Amino acid sequence: MKTDVVIIGAGPSGLMLGHLLAQAGVDAVILERKTGEYVLGRIRAGVLEQGTINIMTQLGLDTRLQTEGLPHDYVSLTNRNKLIKIPVRELTGKHVVVYGQTEITKDLMDAASARGVETIYEAADVALHDIESDTPFVTYHKNGQEFRIDARFIAGCDGFHGPSRKAIPADAATSVERVYPFGWLGILADVPPCAHEVVYASHNNGFGLASMRSNTRSRYYLQVPTDEKIENWSDDRIWDELKVRLGPEFAGKITTGPSIEKSIAPLRSYIFEKMRYGSLFLAGDAAHIVPPTGAKGLNLAASDIAYLAPALISYFKDSDASGTENYEATALARVWKSSRFAWYLTSLMHNFPEDGEFGRKMQVAELDYIANSKAAQMSIAENYIGLPL
Ligand code: FAD
Ligand code: DHB
């Protein structure tokens, strides 16, 4: 088989790219290791920036997002039970929308075949070949047979553990990483949320977060040690600890109920400073990981695609290679800034016992400053709603 672009990975970045290319009449094939049901079963991000929404609007796939998504005009932080409610819309004129990654993925998947977005699920052993040439190809296995797809470009949208980044020789790239000394325990439950806005709580017991997927489905997180076992956290223990960390303002409003998903995820910052190598482009988690504080992961994957899709379209439709030449520099500049915000909010809101009492007092003082400074709130607000593309 021959196509213009082979896209590896049918997460949000791969599906968005596939749709944008199809809309412009550029041939692409998406290869995904898992089944569609598996991809849809992964509970991940929930807060969308305007730039991410714009992609869905451009595709004409925002009907459900506009009707079921919850616009948020505020974000709240707490400083040891003291509430700091930041009016992001009043400060920036913009807002974020709560709409789950699973819903975005479903909207993109459901529309795929009608729009000619070819996706091959359960593609095993995906391997990249000749990526430094202008004639790269990808091989994979399905139903016991080997297949080969030739292309002009390969887009590696295959997440942190996929084969695309690993295909780039180690001496051609640098990467930077910070692994945080804790993880997030997440719980999803069919109960109404405790607040209208997302609440990031800084408490001496550790960080807590109250979020939601809808008016009847809540998503909460707790900072836990990296080696914590999920078996140690009954639903009751999670709800009790959330009430403590979110503080009296929210404790009374928390509706408890059985968990429908419960898992622990590690936190890391990782940036691979090579988003293009020969005929291979990397986008989304394949190139960078942010800690989830600030909800930037999915939005950063979408902004990579907002740069990569028009670059590829200009290449094929206008014989203009300037976008593909500039992709790495343009995307990385935004990646660094979003990574900075995720690192900053992580550092501000979590317990770092190794930083001692001095570190804790500095966090308390900074949050107190934010509570009383419009300039500081503005800085958080403009990052939270998403820096311009
Ligand atoms: P992915 O969504 O990872 O998609 C990559 C796709 O590539 C997957 O479907 C995968 O199956 C496929 N793939 C992998 N290997 C291969 C292969 N060999 N061959 C073919 N296909 C392959 N972000 C937030 O903003 N807020 C959150 O609360 C949040 N929670 C998260 C929780 C977890 C457990 C994780 C892992 C991430 C979370 N994120 C969160 C980050 C956010 O979900 C990601 O940034 C986002 O999914 C990135 O999209 P992507 O398309 O680049 O990668
Ligand atoms: C959610 C996740 C985040 O990482 C965050 O900062 C806010 C909300 C969520 O899953 O809803």
UniProtKB/TrEMBL annotation:
Taxonomic superkingdom: Bacteria
Gene3D superfamilies, sorted: D-Amino Acid Oxidase, subunit A, domain 2, FAD/NAD(P)-binding domain
Presence of keyword Flavoprotein: yes
Gene Ontology process terms (BP): benzoate catabolic process
GO molecular function terms noted in the UniProt entry: 4-hydroxybenzoate 3-monooxygenase activity; FAD binding
PANTHER family reported for this sequence: P-HYDROXYBENZOATE HYDROXYLASE (PTHR43004:SF3), TRK SYSTEM POTASSIUM UPTAKE PROTEIN (PTHR43004)
NCBIfam families with a match to the protein in the record: pbenz_hydroxyl (TIGR02360), PRK08243.1 (NF006091)
Name of this protein: 4-hydroxybenzoate 3-monooxygenase
